[in-house]
Design a protein that fits this description.
The chain is mainly α. 83% of the residues lie in helices and 0% in strands.
Length: 189
Amino acid sequence: MGVGTSEAASVLSFAASVFGFATAWTSVAADYTCYQPRTQSRIKVFFATFAGLAFPLLFTQMLGAAVMTASINTPSYADGYADSSIGGLLAAVLFPPLGRFGKFCLVVLALSTVANNCPNIYSVSLSLQVMARWSARVPRFIWTLLATAAYIAIAVPGYSHFEAVLENFLLIIVCFFFLLLLRLLPRLS
């Protein structure tokens, strides 16, 4: 890796996206922990949530970084990524050692994206309601419908270059979250 402004920006951008993946859950934590008894220790709830998010996020991001690093020295990985982006890379990693089971794993992984997006679409309404007083007055189902419309509007034109569209979209969300956090910090102190 070279040194300079563009490399520093890439590292900071990656760090911001890693931070954004985890902190995106903060606005919905109250929604998903509402079944905890009032007597439950806040510290226990915090560490349970932290561990529940940190371990899978760190594992998958380190695994992704390892596979992308391996793609530099493994021609089949590089070819898979060049041909079909992340899906091709995953196929190059899973198919040779696992055979038909690797194909099955890739199908399950592809279908799991739908399941992973269901809580996000549900939670986007709560996230939008905590942003401002006026947004709290809008019913949750309206926010969910608007988010679904935005989701479809981004997914349909971006299907052929999904990775780039998703990465840029997530980085925009992270920047938006940082701006919101900067706005809220004076109120919290």
